[in-house]
Amino acid sequence: MTTPGAATPPSFKRSSPRKKQRPRSRLLAADFAAGEAEAARALVAARATPSPLSPPAVSPQSAAGMALPREFFEVDALDLAPRLLGKLLRRDQVVLRITEVEAYRPNDSACHGRFGITARTAPVFGPGGHAYVYLCYGLHMMLNVVADKEGVGAAVLIRACAPVSGLEIIQQRRGQQTEKPILLTGPGKVGQALGLSTDWSNHPLYTPGGLEVLDAPEPENILVGPRVGIEYASPEHVMAPWRFAVAGTPWISAPKNTLRPR
Q1: Do residues 28 and 21 lie in contact, with contact meaning Cβ atoms separated by under 8 Å?
Q2: How many helical (H) and strand (E) elements, i.e. helices and strands, does the chain have?
Q3: DSSP-derived secondary structure letter, 114
Q4: pTM above 0.85?
Q5: Cα 42 to chain centroid, rounded
Q6: What is the mean pLDDT of the chain?
Q7: I need a labelling partner for 27 at 20 to 30 A (CA). Which of 70, 200, 215, 249 fits?
Q8: In the Cβ-directed half-sphere of 3, how many Cα atoms lie within 13 Å?
């Protein structure tokens, strides 16, 4: 959560002929096509292996997997964040694959919950699995997924996504006729691509219709690093490795050089 205020966080375990290169435009198009194919396989797998906790499958006419149960979200934000990678965000015809997130926890000097319950931050203290959308710098709509139990005050910021379907709508909302990662690599870009406003705060993301988080396979490898744009926070929270991203994808926001294999 990028706005300008703390217990120490827990420690974490955690010479042959040169080949002819293809033009960059063809590489980008191939990457986008490969991403769509991967997402399609994920959606088929999600439908084929329903969880006993999941509600009924969504309409077969729509490109989507199974809706995640509310219990999926009712965990520590630090556990929920990496679990959201690879999942799908859907609003109407637009489906995005989540590629980068940040965790914000209770007693975190970078979390909006540090201000307590206010008119703006009240959704952060709502039930896990609800949306928290706030306006940043008066310009950008930032989508967060509320984590943990009601009253805790924790969330996961969606920092970047890759397009799965609805590319033309995404381009129209973003005002950019491109298939390059710049289209969705940044939390404000994600909010704009989904056509969000603060009215979406408190919306349950585990119910069919509107804005949903849908199941899909998790990535094979994950990158971790410090969160972005929280210089105002205490030093231990500035350096905490609570940013997570899918390894091997270009659909990640800057800076990338602070991310390391998990």
Answers
A1: no
A2: 5, 9
A3: G
A4: no
A5: 17
A6: 83
A7: 215
A8: 19
Distance (Å, rounded) from C-alpha 233 to C-alpha 4? Answer: 8
| Domain locations in the chain as residue ranges | 24-55+63-261
> CA of 44: how far to CAs of 37, 57, 60, in Å?
11, 12, 11
pLDDT digits (tens, 9 = 90+) for 216-228: 999 999 999 999 9
Check whether 33 has a pLDDT greater than 90.
Answer: no
- DSSP 8-state assignment for residue 11: P
Residue with tokens 């396979």: 217
Residue 47, pLDDT > 60, answer no
Q: What is the mean pLDDT of residues 52-71?
A: 55
Of 43, 73, 53, 27, which Cα lies nearest the Cα of 180? 27
- CA torsion sign for 133, 159, 56, 54 is negative
Least confident of 30-34, 53-57, 105-109, 180-184: 53-57
Which of 85, 118, 113 lies closest to 216 in space, CA to CA? 85
* 24-55+63-261 to CATH, choices 3.40.50.20, 3.40.50.1820, 3.40.50.720, 3.10.300.10: 3.10.300.10
Q: Name the token pair of 129.
A: 């699995």
Average pLDDT over residues 121-142: 94
Structure confidence by residue, pLDDT tens digits, 146-169: 999 999 999 999 999 999 999 999
What phi-psi label fits residue 144: left (phi over 0), alpha (psi between -120 and 50 degrees) or beta? beta
Contacts of 60 (CB under 8 A, 6+ apart): none
